[in-house]
Specification:
The chain is an alpha/beta fold. It has helices spanning about 10-25, 25-35, 75-85, 105-120, 135-145, 185-190, 205-215, 230-235, 255-275; strands at about 45, 95, 125-130, 150-155, 195, 200. It starts with 11 loop residues before the first helix and ends with a helix.
């Protein structure tokens, strides 16, 4: 299989945009000029599974920090398509992510649903699947995907790659004491709306954060055009290391709020296992 060019998450342009976003999200500037970002009606990312076969440090879906086999039901993808048609949303890009999306137990059913949507309702939509290309099973699935699905390569051969430190919560840093977290960040515009197993969010990363903190702010149906999702941004961006500017790293970094949350989740899981015995 010929691999597409590897997608680079860390570039000079993005670092500069992050630095500007840090300035732009300061509360006194946001009050003067308004919030910089709004939920997308052009792009959507669908986290179809939190299973992953290569658990990278600083994973922004917590696949390493809190492994899970949770999957998005196929019915949720069918519902997304129906709601998109009901609201007249013409997506420009739909991206399947995870975890590693090829590990979803019904990946081909999901691809078929989206391919039918593309063929019958939105021929201009770009269907994209992000994959790490790691392992025989993943490559076997990729080889069977139809040609209308574009592959986004995040090719990895180890867990240690250059990422922004996702688990460094801005709310734990004095540098963000004046930030308005409801401003969001560029991911909301560049990546788009997120559909995850716990609902719709201003970005898919927020759904992964909810998996750990259980704020339950996910929308059960596709948000209407007038839903600002500011409540989600205020709750989740304060926890997300992608908000504002941080130097990328290859080593695990974690602030107090995240250490506490993972420890609490681990304790809950242990209690559930004991109760089942």
């Amino acid at each position: 299989m010929r691999l597409p060019p590897r997608h680079r998450n860390v570039t000079l342009k993005r670092l500069l945009l992050d630095a500007w976003q840090y300035v732009r999200a300061q509360a006194f500037i946001a009050r003067q000029f308004g919030r910089q970002y709004a939920p997308s009606r052009e792009h959507v990312e669908i986290d179809i599974t939190y299973r992953c076969n290569l658990k990278c440090f600083n994973c922004n879906r917590s696949c390493t920090q809190a492994p899970s086999r949770e999957e998005l039901p196929v019915a949720a993808v069918a519902g997304f398509i129906e709601e998109s048609l009901d609201q007249g949303v013409q997506w420009k890009r739909i991206r399947l992510l995870g975890g590693e999306p090829t590990l979803h137990s019904r990946i081909f059913e999901i691809v078929d649903l989206l391919s039918d949507y593309q063929a019958n309702h939105n021929p201009n939509v770009r269907l994209v699947l992000g994959t790490n290309f790691h392992g025989r099973h993943v490559r076997r699935v990729l080889a069977r995907l139809p040609e209308n699905v574009v592959l986004k390569s995040t090719l990895k051969t180890s867990r240690k790659h250059l990422f922004r430190p996702f688990n460094m919560a801005p709310c734990d840093s004095v540098y963000y004491r004046w930030a308005d977290f409801s401003c969001g960040c560029r991911i909301i515009a560049e990546c788009g709306l997120g559909l995850t197993p716990s609902g719709y969010y201003m970005c898919a990363i927020a759904g992964g954060i909810n998996r750990i903190f259980d704020h339950n702010l996910g929308r059960r149906r596709l948000p209407a055009a007038d839903d600002s999702l500011n409540d989600q941004m205020a709750a989740y961006c304060r926890l997300c290391g992608h908000f504002g500017f941080r130097w990328p790293t290859r080593n695990p970094q974690m602030s107090f709020t995240w250490r506490q949350a993972y420890a609490h989740l681990k304790q809950q899981r242990m209690l559930v296992r004991k109760a089942r015995l």
